[in-house]
């Protein structure tokens, strides 16, 4: 079992309150996912040619100033870092693949969680309320977000196995359910040069969709293709720099409910995570139908 | 039609005993406290109408009832509302999460909004009314209860339903009545597909009378002759070793 939450704010006036509105949503999903939690928040994109890289350092204490100096010496570009506990968002004008390769070589204890111009990503093990507090989720601002609380059923409880999963740039996915053919998907993708970081089933779906997006599919087409390729139970919630999308498998075993008003679109596994939202009792409430892709643009 | 008639009698009996109102605000007290009251602390005489406010999607509200009492829930509820209900008349003024009135034994459950998956699953008796749409697997393994849905039902509804009646005022998704036993489905709208061994059958006066009575109890105004009957072809009752098996 797992819990998913998503929130897209149509009203720009609400965007400074994105995190504050989300925290009770995530805490509401604690019983569905008590062992880990994570969040991808999408902000207005940083300027062209600049990228944000979300980093996770685990138990390691990292000298961020020292890291910045080393990066500046090694790569001719601008670097800046904002830290939050053992997470950090590194902003740079360098090519993100060069930075990623440099980190992998010099500081392999640091994990790259996400890359993009809009996405910041946090995930860790522990109770959702603790994680919300640890990383100050209530203060996050942005246009939309994708969150998850995890109750692991098929792979280990580690920060790397927590959701959201990311692939490519400005793309993330969370999953409630379980896939029965993740290894088959993986064996299809690996010969194409797509690398995996964990043995988690959700990562296979995430990398599959991101591969389809890079091949030119739009999100809806990619998901349609996924109906043939991905076997198992799922409610997937996906985020891109300007879109939030949800889809449920043909059997709709995993719950989801959407509340839409003129101001926001809020998505959760259960209504109890939406009950606190302003105006939710006047919202259009519905459960996504099986194998139908619902998407909202910022 | 015995079950429905008996339900109405129960309902009148309960109505006759309504007295004061006992209000639970779930913003202030827990579902456990509410259910403890409903299970163990109801007064012996002059049963109150129990009003539940701010349910906010909580699970198992008024599950396991075993008393002829009226319960009114004002808002949306989560999983298993009125599960295993016996005798009580429970109204949800909102939407219901998965498994509403699952395993109901008797009584009346009315959901004024929509109901999520597996509404009325395995229910043995009583009447479940869903005024909006019901999601997938409505009435799965139904064992004798009656279900009336004002809107449509999702795929795999009445899967392996053994006894009882389902009246669907709008359409149904895929595989309606798959592997049906002796439950009977009446459906007014379009059926995307019938499940294995389910078949449309001609309706008789008895069928129309059943539909008319269930519609009347549920409070829906439709012409009973607009409903089609779906029942088991009973071809799966016996193993056919001659049949070509495809997997």
TrEMBL record, chain A:
EC number: 2.4.2.14
Record has Transferase as a keyword: yes
A single GO molecular function term of this UniProt record: amidophosphoribosyltransferase activity
InterPro entries (UniProt xref): GATase_2_dom, Ntn_hydrolases_N
Keyword S-adenosyl-L-methionine on entry: no
Keywords (A to Z) from UniProt: Glutamine amidotransferase, Glycosyltransferase, Transferase
Top EC group: transferase
Domain of life: Bacteria
Domain Glutamine amidotransferase type-2: 2-298
Protein name: Amidophosphoribosyltransferase
Biological source species: Povalibacter uvarum
Automatic annotation (TrEMBL), chain B:
Coiled-coil positions: none
CDD domains (UniProt xref): GXGXG
Protein name, UniProt field: Glutamate synthase domain-containing protein 3
GO molecular function, one term: oxidoreductase activity
Domain of life according to the entry: Bacteria
InterPro entries: Glu_synth_asu_C_sf, Glu_synth_lsu_3
């Amino acid at each position: 079992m797992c819990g998913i939450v998503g929130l897209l704010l149509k009203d720009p006036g609400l965007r400074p309150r994105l995190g504050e509105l989300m925290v009770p949503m995530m805490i509401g999903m604690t019983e569905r996912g008590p062992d880990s939690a994570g969040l991808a928040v999408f902000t207005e994109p940083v300027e062209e040619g600049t990228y944000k890289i979300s980093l996770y350092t685990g138990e390691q204490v990292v000298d961020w100033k020292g890291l910045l100096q080393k990066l500046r010496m090694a790569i001719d570009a601008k670097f800046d870092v904002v830290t939050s506990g053992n997470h950090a968002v590194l902003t740079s004008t360098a090519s993100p693949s060069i930075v990623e390769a440099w980190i992998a070589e010099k500081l392999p204890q640091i994990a790259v969680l996400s890359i993009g111009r809009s996405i910041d990503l946090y995930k860790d093990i522990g109770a959702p309320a603790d994680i919300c507090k640890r990383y100050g989720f209530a203060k996050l601002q942005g246009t939309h977000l994708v969150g998850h609380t995890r109750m692991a059923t098929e792979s280990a409880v580690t920060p790397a196995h927590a959701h959201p999963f990311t692939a490519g740039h400005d793309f993330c996915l969370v999953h409630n359910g379980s896939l029965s053919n993740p290894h088959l998907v993986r064996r299809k993708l690996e010969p194409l040069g797509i690398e995996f970081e964990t043995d988690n089933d959700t990562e296979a779906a995430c990398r599959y969709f991101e591969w389809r997006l890079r091949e030119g599919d739009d999100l809806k087409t990619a998901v349609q293709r996924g109906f043939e390729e991905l076997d198992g139970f799922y409610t997937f919630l996906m985020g891109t720099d300007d879109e939030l999308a949800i889809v449920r498998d043909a059997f709709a075993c995993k719950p989801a409910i959407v509340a839409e008003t003129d101001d926001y679109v809020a998505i959760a596994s259960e209504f109890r995570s939406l009950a606190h939202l302003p105006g939710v009792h006047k919202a259009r409430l519905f459960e996504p139908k099986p194998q139908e892709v619902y998407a909202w643009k910022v | 039609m015995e079950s429905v008639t008996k339900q109405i009698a129960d309902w009148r009996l309960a109505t006759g005993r309504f007295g004061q109102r006992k209000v639970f605000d779930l913003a202030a007290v827990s579902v456990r406290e509410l259910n403890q009251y409903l299970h163990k602390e109801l007064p012996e005489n002059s049963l109150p109408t129990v009003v539940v406010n701010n349910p906010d999607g909580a699970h198992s509200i008024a599950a396991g009832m075993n008393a002829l009492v009226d319960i009114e829930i004002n808002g949306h509820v989560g999983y298993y509302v009125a599960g295993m209900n016996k005798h009580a008349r429970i109204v949800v003024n909102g939407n219901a999460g998965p498994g509403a009135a699952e395993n109901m034994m008797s009584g009346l459950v009315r959901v004024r909004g929509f109901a999520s998956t597996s509404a009325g699953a395995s229910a043995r008796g009583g009447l479940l009314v869903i005024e909006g749409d019901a999601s997938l697997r409505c009435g799965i393994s139904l064992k004798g209860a009656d279900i009336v849905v004002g809107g449509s039902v999702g795929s795999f509804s009445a899967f392996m339903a053994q006894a009882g009646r389902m009246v669907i005022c709008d359409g149904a998704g895929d595989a309606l009545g798959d592997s049906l036993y002796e439950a009977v489905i009446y459906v007014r709208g379009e059926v995307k597909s019938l499940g294995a061994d389910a078949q449309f059958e001609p309706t008789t006066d008895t069928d129309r009378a059943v539909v008319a009575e269930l519609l009347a109890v549920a409070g829906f105004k439709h012409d009973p002759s607009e409903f089609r009957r779906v029942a088991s072809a009973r071809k799966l009752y016996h193993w056919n070793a001659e049949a070509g098996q495809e997997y």
